[in-house]
Write a structure and sequence with these properties.
The complex is a heterodimer of chains A (257) and B (187). Chain A has 257 residues and is of the alpha+beta class. Chain A is built from eleven helices and six strands. Chain B has helices spanning 2-14, 18-25, 31-47, 58-73, 86-98, 105-111, 116-121, 126-137, 142-149, 153-186. In chain B, helix 4 runs parallel beside helix 9, helix 8 (126-137) packs across helix 10 and helix 9 (142-149) packs across helix 10. Chain B is elongated, with a radius of gyration of 19 Å. The termini of chain B are far apart. The chains are: A alpha+beta (257), B mainly alpha (187).
């Protein structure tokens, strides 16, 4: 091995030393690290450093939470009636329109029910997402409103509209619409050769959606992919933002999280 | 009766993590507010308890909820990256590793008061500190940390590696500064 190649290999293995100490390397990576450690004093010192600090941190005392907090948690009332029940009612309420929508939109919409990314509920069973999918189709079929007029949009909806803070996303169209019975702002961007649609709605509307509300409460975001279409939702500063495009939700997360 | 059983199951699965969650919450805020975060975490966890599939992952699940609560309340919190000169800490780490002399860390750690190491950890950039704390102090696996923090496992690996290096640099730098100050006072 040349000196340059050895230096590169040293740099690569050095990156793995913490994981080696933590027993988090596969055998494939662990073997070369062990071999390298036999001859590299510098990496031996680095391993010792990781071991020493990791051990010391694991021995740090855990301060006790207060008795009052424990009591408050033990005496918490039953969980808010509901989320699951509300979701069930929502499904029932929207079942008929959802089925009707599927007939109208044909096989394309029906296939949305077949596969789910992060959670099990299809878009068509979540009123806001179902409406967003339908609105997106309408906007696409009409080739989108020609102008991007943020001033007019801000006046038309009773909540702040924040655009994506990404230099590589070009806003080219805006419109007002309705999602799940609530006014919503629609924005279309060109991003890396695809069209990304953003909907902004009041934060509480997005939180009321089955699955979406639960995901926001647990993870801070909702993300799901169905047949190549991804949807990501977050709530920030009181406004709910929904992003959708023909890419997996993981790709969209990069735009917004 | 069913509700009581559910409550008992919830409490036995989650309450023994309470102290660790308060400790984690104090990364973002102190005292009563940290306990408020934890209470909110338990309220959300109880509402979603039926979604917890793997009881072994209870702590990681609670950490994820706590992180969401903290992020919601601290959307605009300042990042600590610029509070310290990272390059200075990297140079201090480099000195430890480059030298053939015995590492000063063992002796230095033996002198530290209980809780001081945790404080020091909170002085390094937050992404690194969080990964190191979740792994070293709370025993989570890299995979679990990746899920909680929504980053790839390779990023967790590099954050833990770099986090410990910066922490070592910080401890050594602070110790050297302390010695210098004492010497100045003595003169």
């Amino acid at each position: 091995m040349t000196e340059a190649a050895a230096a590169l290999e040293h740099a690569r293995l050095q990156e793995l030393l913490a994981a080696f100490v933590d027993d988090e390397l596969s055998a494939n990576d662990g073997g070369p690290v062990e071999k390298h450690l036999r001859t590299c004093a510098r990496c031996q010192r680095e391993v010792a450093l990781h071991r020493t600090l990791s051990r010391a941190l694991s021995q740090e005392p855990v301060p006790a939470g207060s008795f009052r907090l424990r009591r408050r948690i033990e005496q918490m009332g039953p969980p808010p009636p509901g989320r699951n029940e509300r979701a069930f009612m929502a499904i029932r309420r929207w079942a008929a329109p959802a089925l009707a929508a599927m007939v109208v939109f044909g096989v394309g919409s029906a296939t949305l029910l077949l596969r789910r990314g992060d959670t099990s509920r299809p878009f068509a069973a979540i009123p806001m997402l179902r409406d967003a999918v339908a609105d997106c189709r309408r906007a696409t079929a009409r080739n989108f409103p020609r102008k991007a007029d943020l001033g007019a949009l801000a006046e038309a909806v009773p909540f702040p509209v924040h655009t994506l803070d990404r230099p590589d996303a070009e806003l080219f169209s805006t419109w007002k619409t309705t999602l799940a019975g609530s006014p919503a702002a629609g924005l279309a961007y060109r991003w890396r050769g695809i069209v990304v649609i953003q909907y902004t709605v009041p934060g509480d509307v997005i939180r009321q959606q089955p699955d979406v509300g639960e995901a926001l409460s647990i993870s801070g975001y909702y993300a799901s992919s169905q047949l190549g279409q991804g949807i990501v939702a977050i709530v920030a500063d009181g406004s709910g933002t929904l992003l959708m495009a023909d890419v997996p939700a993981d790709e969209l997360k990069r735009l917004i999280l | 009766m069913k509700a009581e059983l559910r409550r008992a199951r919830f409490q036995s699965a989650t309450l023994h993590h309470l102290d660790r969650l308060v400790m984690l919450a104090s990364r973002w805020t102190d005292g009563h507010e940290a306990e408020d975060y934890v209470q909110e975490t338990y309220a959300r966890a109880w509402g979603a308890f039926d979604q917890l599939r793997d009881p072994k992952a209870t702590f990681a699940w609670l950490c994820q909820i706590l992180r969401t609560v903290a992020t919601e309340r601290h959307r605009t919190r300042a990042r600590r990256q610029d509070l310290l000169f990272i390059t200075e800490l990297e140079a201090a780490h480099e000195e430890i590793i480059a030298s053939d002399a015995p590492s000063p860390l063992d002796e230095l750690l033996a002198r530290l008061d209980a809780g001081r190491l945790r404080e020091a950890l909170r002085s390094i950039p937050e992404d690194f500190a969080e990964a190191v704390e979740l792994h070293d102090m709370h025993g989570l696996k890299y995979r679990e940390i990746a899920e909680i923090t929504s980053v790839p496992i390779g990023t967790v690996m590099s954050r833990i590696s770099r986090g410990r290096q910066l922490l070592a640099g910080l401890l050594v730098r602070d110790d050297a500064e302390g010695v210098r100050k004492e010497a100045a006072v003595g003169e």
